[in-house]
Every structure is written in C-alpha cells, then in structure tokens.
Amino acid sequence: MKEKEISNPCISPTDFAAVMAETGNTLRYMAECGSRGFDCSRKTLELLKNLGTRKKPETETLASIYADLENCRRCKLCTKRTKIVFGAGSPNARLIFVGEGPGYDEDLSGEPFVGKAGQLLTKIIKAMNLTREQVYICNIVKCRPPGNRNPEPDEIMTCIPFLKKQIAVIKPEFICALGKIAAQALLNSTQPISKIRGSFFDYQGIKLMPTFHPAFLLRNPAKKGDVWEDMKKIMREMGQKI
After folding, report:
1. Residues near 65 by Cβ (< 8 Å), separated by ≥ 6?
2. Which among 22, 77, 119, 203 counts the fewest CB atoms within 10 Å?
3. Which has the closest alpha carbon to 171: 11, 18, 59, 85?
4. Distance CA 111, CA 121 (A)
5. Which first-to-last residue range defines the signal peptide (predicted)?
6. Residue 177 CA to chain centroid, in angstroms?
7. Which of 160, 157, 167, 173 is nearest to 209 (CA)?
8. For residues 223 and 71, what is the distance between their CA atoms, to the nearest angstrom?
9. C-beta separation of 97 from 136 below 8 A
C-alpha cells in the first residue's frame, strides 16, 4: 500500500526570510532583557509570555539628553573640565545660538556664554528685542577645550550628536551659528566664516545663519557692524521690529 502523498511543507524564500528576521529581532530583545538561553526558567517564560507587549520608548526631552550626557567620559575633554556646559534658555525657542565650546567662565559656572564674549552676545540678543530666556544658547562641544583651543575633529564628532538631539527636541525655526567651528560642523562645510556669514543655509528645514563669534568681535570690533547686519536679517525673518 502506497504511503499517502502529502503536500510540500516548505515555505517560500520570502516567508522564510521574514520568519528569520522576526526571530532575530525576538532573540535580540530577549538578550537585552537579560535572557542568556532557552532554559525554560521562570524569567524566560515570562519574556516569552510578554512578547509583542514591549513599551514604546519615551519621547526624548532636554532633561533625558542631559541625563545621558551627565558625567560623560566619551572623549578626552572630560579629563580637564570642571562642569559640563549643556545649554540654557527656552525649550520652545524659535532661535538657537550655537557656539564652539565653553570657555573658562563657562567651565566654572556650567552656563553657556557668561564670560566677556557671552556678555556681548547678551547685548546682541537684547538689541534684537529678545532676552536670553526667550532664545536657547549652547555649543558644539559641552566641555571646555584646554586653553580655549578650538575643538578637535574627534571631539566634535563625539559631542555633536547631543547638540543635534537638542535641536530636534527644541525644533527652532532659526539657528545662528557663531563662528567658523559651529558653522562648519553644522553645515558639514570647510568654507571660511568670512565667505558664508550673512547668508541663510538650510539645516534640516531650519534656517541657519552663520556669523562671527562674539569673541572674534572683542578682538575685531570693526566687524560688529557685519554681525548686526546678519542679526537684522534674522529679525526680519522672525518678524521682529528693527
């Protein structure tokens, strides 16, 4: 008597790939939760029972970004810093000012732009009919480079993801990049600041205006007029009275 013929139990390559992909995702999830094998322990069984019910990640906030950055040891700048300088101002700001890195006074206080350059920036913001509390102020790197040197490429690469997260959370309409380091890092450019200042560029749908850094203006006061022209362009776009 012939054996009863049965249909081919094999699944298609497409279905097999989908099953394997889902299996891989499940195994990675279980590993992240602490499972180290299929020992049918109570912990493993509980994980299997709860598959598909994992919580969605919470929305990122400035506080959660700071918590991730706090006590950071990701680059060599951490060895000399006093305090991390995260940022300050309104979490709903329409305008963000981005500098290159903290200086001596900022390193001591943990607040951005509080030294002589910061005092000049405050005057610029006031002249724009705004206050520091209405804008947001931060830097490319969050720790002071020794001797106030320029941040190095590896330091920028390590720290700029936190700045990009800050920008993504605040969702400003405008960014003012203060100086060469900030402008080049955000625009992924090598153009000198003298060539790109005074023009708007697109940063992920946000209007970005590069201009001279306030510290540069302290050394070159004749350039203050150029910066004021740049600020007036931002004010016009923002609908601010000039």
Report:
1. 86, 162, 165, 166, 169
2. 22
3. 59
4. 13
5. none
6. 14
7. 173
8. 38
9. yes
Q: Can you say whether the dihedral through the CA atoms of 169, 175, 179, 181 is positive or negative?
A: positive
| 207: its two tokens | 């209007």
Give this prediction's pTM.
Answer: 0.77
- Tokens for 225, please give them: 């007029």
